[in-house]
Amino acid sequence: MLRFIFVAALIYLAFQIWRFIYNVNRYSQPSPKRPRLAGVMVKDEICQTYLPEEEAIKEKIDGKVYYFCSEECRQRWRAEKKRAGLIKS
């Protein structure tokens, strides 16, 4: 009976060591998740929302860059600026 308990304890100990090594290897590798955007947040001129610069639609006028969350916001902004006479075409 004592031999059975000793063998069971050794098997349990071996299992715990294997599980520890397996988890260390599994968590030490980088996860293949979607890459995080590490850029600057910019503000949409129309709806005032913030979005990553990489995802924004850009419009450059007179050396200044304007950012938009969608083509719809960009078109609305252009229409407002045309009415005010600040941009041509």
Could you describe the 3D structure shown?
The chain is of the alpha+beta class and 89 residues long. It is built from 2 helices and 4 strands. It has helices at residues 2-28, 71-84; strands at residues 41-43, 50-52, 57-61, 64-68. A hairpin with a 2-residue loop joins strand 3 and strand 4. The model has no long low-confidence stretch (mean pLDDT 85).
N-to-C order of helices and strands: HEEEEH
Q: Mind telling me the C-alpha Rg?
A: 30 Å
Class by alpha and beta content: alpha+beta
| pLDDT averaged residue by residue | 85
Q: Tally of extended strands?
A: 4
Outline, from the CA principal axes? rod-shaped
What spatial order of strands do you see in the largest sheet? 1-2
Taking the sheet with the most strands, its summary is: 2 strands, antiparallel
Span from first to last CA?
Answer: 93 Å
Strand content: 15-25%
- Considering DSSP H and I runs of 4 or more, what fraction of the residues is helical? 40-55%
* Poorly predicted regions: none
Tell me the number of helical segments per DSSP (H or I, 4 or more residues long): 2
